[in-house]
Please model this.
Amino acid sequence: MTCSEMLGEAGDVRDCYAAVQQWVDETGIEGLHRRLSEAEAIFRRIGITFAVYGEGGDPERLIPFDLLPRIFTAAEWARLEAGIRQRAAALNAFLLDVYNRGEIIRAGIVPGDIVYQNKAYKPEMAGFTPPGKVYSHIVGIDIVRTGLDDFMVLEDNCRTPSGVSYMLENREIMTRMFPELFARHRVAPVDDYPSQLLRSLQEVGPPACKDVPRVVVLTPGSFNSAYYEHSYLADLMGVELVEPADLFVEDGLVFMKTTRGPRRVDVIYRRIDDDFIDPLAFRADSLLGVPGLFNAYRGGGVTLCSAPGAGIADDKAVYVYVPEMIRFYLGESAILQNVPTWQCSKPDDFAHVMAHLPELVVKEVHGSGGYGMLIGPKATSSEIEAYAARIRANPSEFIAQPTLDLSAAPTLGPVGLVQRHVDFRPFCLVGKEIRLVPGGLTRVALAEGSLVVNSSQGGGVKDTWVLR
Amino acid sequence: MRITIRHETLYRYEEEASGVVMRLRLQPASSNAQTVEDWVVTANDVPIERWITNGYGDAEAVWRAPGRVDRVEIVSQGTVRTVDCAGVLKPAHGAVRPQLFMRATPLTEIDDAIAGLAQRARSEQGPLSSLHALCKLVHAEIEYRTGSTTMETTAAQALAQKSGVCQDQAHVFIAAARSLMIPARYVVGYLRDDERPDSEHDPHAWAEAWVEGLGWIGFDSTLGLCPVDGHVRLCCGLDAADAAPIRGVMIAGGETTLSHDVQIASLPPEDTAQSQTQQ
Model:
């Protein structure tokens, strides 16, 4: 049975949702719809209409917002927070290891092939230790809930996870529109995320920087689906938003062109994929990059956040080893469990997957955004047959997981509250220390019964509360 | 041997090019087999002074042309003292794990013919014997014929047509070694050839393979031998494209074309006595 975020095991409204239930009763469904229209008008006015990273879709489309907050109790958050911090630490330790001695591979815990033969592993990074030994400065960890006490990590995002602007905007709209609701709760604030992000980035200044590092946000440009978030974060941090053409490399340092002449840049929070940041180091046909940027980075003249090659840690083939990474590097057991995963590259797993396709979710190892996956229980037999042929042709490109019964949260439907499946993406910051604001992005699958929360596939967003 | 090298690369742009930035891997490193006595690289007469070490252990620099240019001339020049180490490179060169060099690239895809060639070289006496056999086999199978291939020719194509230049012979060796589960990589450098006039040398390429317990060992399938004291090593990569000693970008400005002109001159040893004490 689907776990309800709002209802306890006996079907009673959980204490943490009691005041929200009362607010719904007082406002009435019609009243809530009226307020939702007001909220959507505000979103349109400020122009927050972008897709979550890697999901594609129409950047001008408004992602549906749901008024009912998703609520974590203080005790639930304490456990989530410990698990998220632990995972962010282990993922960075893994990156430091695989770009240096590769102890976890020598120890036989992670197979060398899935690291060294992986396109996400960048040999250009070998033997180089970035400032503070940090590779992934913003770790987005996608978490699902399958029972009141059961949380699982669906995937990690170590490159440039997006969606944090929704966390901030959703909260701002909610507090502006419903102050009375916040008066009835003690909700932990999330609004210092930008200052914590800036502090984390300033803590990883390059060796060549002897002063307070100048931080910039590097965006591919206004055509990018997450451009709004890039400009929003730059604005909130009070730093420049630059495009590749604004930067150049000279004598191992990076400068930005300004009307008052070149200005040194020390830390680049880049929202451009590895392949496109420097045509002299990575894809030569990239028109986006800054030529020589990687050489300046490796030479200690600038810091790139995240480090090129950080994506090897969030690869789906590597994901299955994260609990063992936590044990290997931290000597701890994983606080948050992985979803059980079959690797089709392993003969036994392959046989199991092929025999159970109608029950499983099958994903491409290098895919993202909910595209190219098979959801067995929702697929027709011909869809399953076609997908099976793809797996047989290239087993190592696929992993499979059980179809998870994601928890459902109360959501405003046309005539009343409905239960819709949700997931959760917190944003963990890594600088000299690990920081985590109490909150994140809750995505909700708006279609009845749907398990796909991606905005490109009809997902919406909710404000996420952590109660004190 | 004491080798003096001058390597000029000339790019001419029909119209002035702007935004020209080049990545250079033109600075040889000292090792057991070679001691760099002096070496200078210039770009349009400006000395390149800031070098970093890349993941493969090679020196790398970036040069940005000031303003618009109609030509870029890169000259590297210096003296290297070499000894014959039977191809064994020490200390183990580069931070990247040898296993990385099992990666297939478009130029080194393994087809049935390459796998078959590798099997013919496979020796029961272990990987080192297999590699020596493979080096001789590639030398015998692929005739050195200038102009028979291009920069884009793959290992499989070169083996199918049984001809090529040093790049192709190295690619076939690398692909075949990888099919034997031996990490192998592409090396760019220079070869002093006593049978040629000093002014008629070209850049050279060969391969290195990883043998557990020994490290990286050079194999020159063009000669059918391990590198000798005529070889000067510059840089390496997964294949010729990855190991390119010069890579450049520019902002396109109308009808712009690019031309190359490479010259190498090598001189015989001047100071034989000192060279022998080095050994």
Remarks:
- The interface with chain A takes residues 19, 21-23, 50, 52-57, 60-62, 64, 94-97, 99-100, 102-103, 238, 247-249 of chain B (CB under 8 Å).
- Helices of chain B lie at 112-121, 127-141, 155-161, 166-179, 272-278.
